[in-house]
Write a structure and sequence with these properties.
The complex is a heterodimer of chains A (116) and B (245). By secondary structure, chain A is mainly beta. Chain A has 1 helix and 7 strands. The chains are: A mainly beta (116), B alpha+beta (245). The interface between A and B is large, with 48 and 58 residues.
Amino acid sequence: GLECDGSNGGLCCRQQFYIDFRLIGWNDWIIAPAGYYGNYCEGSCPAYMAGVPGSASSFHTAVVNQYRMRGMSPGSVNSCCIPTKLSTMSMLYFDDEYNIVKRDVPNMIVEECGCA
Amino acid sequence: PQAQESCASCGLGRPDDSDRVDTDFVEAVKRHILSRLQMRQRPNITHPIPKAAMVTALRKLHAGKVREDGRVEIPHLDGQAAYANEVQEETSEIISFAETDDSTLSKSSLFFLISNEGNQNLYVQQANLWLYFKLLPGGPEKGLRRKVTVKVHYQEPSSQGGGRWPLVEKRVELKRSGWHTFPLSEAVRAVLGKGGRRQDLDVRCEGCEAASVVPILVDPADPSHRPFLVVRARQADGKHRIRKR
């Protein structure tokens, strides 16, 4: 997937967004990690992106895109820029009874974006 | 433009006030984290756990490496998962620290408030009690092991009759002061199974006095050796159980 670094002309990309827990005052109850990557996807998915390798969110989308490129699309619905790869975030935090909870939270960080 | 509307994330416009965007985003991220941790709001930390106790517990569990700068690095619970699609079940490890209050009958009683992380159907995979035993000078000859028998009982709070029955009995051989674990999986399962959260225990040590050994219970003067309970739990849902059967 593409990274939003201003050079991809508004195409679907991953925008990195990091929050340091100290800055929002959450470092008293979240022991680790020190912050959170709240990355998100933004940008457009024009038809000509359909052929770009890695831009499709799934095999099904790649097939639909091929139809679309050949003018055989089942409707005029546009494609969306969505997360295509997510990763787990391990967290260590206090709950409200002072237990320390260690937990792997799946699908927590957006690693890549693509067109659905 | 019509087609644009049919796609929730297409064509996110660039609002002119990026500060407002950041504030909105920060609030959205906060809500996202809390919802994924099944919390309605962030915990209110009024009297933090003594850092010494916390660091000891984390070190003992390899739950995290405490770096020089005090930051904690965490390995994944199951040690391998790198991407979400490999973590099929949400497991969590909960560390509870021993407490006492006026309903704990004697000096050898203590209790744990076990977190069920906001949901009732946690399946306890394993629960261990960690106790620290200190060797006092004046015991048997140097190098010889000191042998004691530790009995952990379930201690019913005085308000419910104060009954006591054995949970685990273990012969411990000590060469130096250190931590020892006592399996309490069934006891913790029973407490959580009844919808309770409080695990009352009574710890007796036979032979400790003669061997100059002291089990450290809740001692404000010694926070780094405070007993703690580790519960490894999994979100229990029907699907997995069926497969288990």
